[in-house]
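From: lab user (bench 3)
To: helpdesk
Subject: output format question, protein + zinc ion

Hello, I'm new to running complex predictions and I'm not sure whether the block I got back is the full result or only part of it. Here's what I submitted:
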Amino acid sequence: MTDDARTIDINGRTYHWPRQPVVVVCIDGSEPGYVEAAVETGKAPFFARILAEGTNRLADCVIPSFTNPNNMSIVTGVAPAIHGIAANFFYDPDADEDVMTNAPKFLWVDTIFKAFFDSGAKVAIVTAKDKLTPLLGHGLDFSSGRAISFSSEKSDQTTLAKNGIERADQFVGLPVPDVYSAELSAFIFAAGVKLMERDRPDVMYLSTTDYIQHKHAPGAPVANDLYIMMDRYLAQLEDMDCVIGLTADHGMNAKHTDEGEPDVIYLQDVMDSWSLGGQARVVLTITDPYVVHHGALGSFCTLYLSADADAYAYAAKIRELDGVLAVYSRSQGCAEFELPEERMGDLIVISEKHKVLGAKTANHDLSGLTVPLRSHGGLTEQRVPLLVNRPPSGLAEDRRLRNFDIFDVALNHAQ
Ligand code: ZN
Ligand code: ZN
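Helpdesk reply: Thanks, we reran it on our side. This is the complete output you should expect:
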């Protein structure tokens, strides 16, 4: 059997061994329309080619349409009910504390990277923010010389033992970018090109930040510039004969009033004003250490109710609120969106396209919102692009694609 015929089984799926390097890019917050608008400028020839001649489909992301659950679905090939990461953080009712989901102990399955690595592949992972690095690199042996994983945010702190590379910033030859900047994403692609030139990894994953998409709609000059930058680096990867698959962790929509104010339902304040008995606690699972650009306001939240609270009464009253799209019980919502019940509250609430859900007015610091709010989290940010720089082969037209099918499409339907 030749290498070309090898397959890898992981999390119930089978992947072909890459015949040439396979690069998967998660463009954070890449609502459909961003790529197309950049192509219209005439300055994004790689994207123009991929739209016209490659695999050009739409896919559904995981709900909640947040970064961590979707990145982890993309790199495991399965839904959060199976991998366990259902939010950027979750509330642990037993300990009565909010827990960040960025520790590997919360991840229930191995990644696609680990499966390929264990079979001898070279793997490289570069992300924007450091929060995902421990999860994405989980199970890789960085002293092997076959695995590299680091974030542009902490690229000046990388070590051979921890990341598989010493001082990644010096290797890339760029200064460490500010965590709230377009350069944070540019650094990732520069690193990807350098790593491809030096190591030619079999599998590479590049995951960006949605800082720009939170501030600029498709077609805005700043947004176009971001995609034109990506285009330049992706063309270099294509010249190195890489299969390149692109998708997004979630979309992005305007979430403000005509006056430019965030259009928020402060659900904790609203519920505190009701006399329904018991207590209800709003948990905004978009929250992570980087909230400046969205003020922790997204279109999905979960509610923990005290034992004496009437869940039906709360659900019925929340459903009547203007701007609420859907309310689910824990079991309904987890069945509908393939989420782990142990990491969700008693109720799940999703707001409409241009509304976001907050907790208490007083607790949201919106001083960092320098432009009208754009955000995500709900069903209205579920559609994302799924693109590969090769025409599809054996990919059914009517197959409902998920963003976490990107490795399947890139490895099994494009090479
Ligand atoms: Zn994201
Ligand atoms: Zn975001």
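A quick orientation on your result: The chain has a mean pLDDT of 94. Let us know if anything else is unclear.
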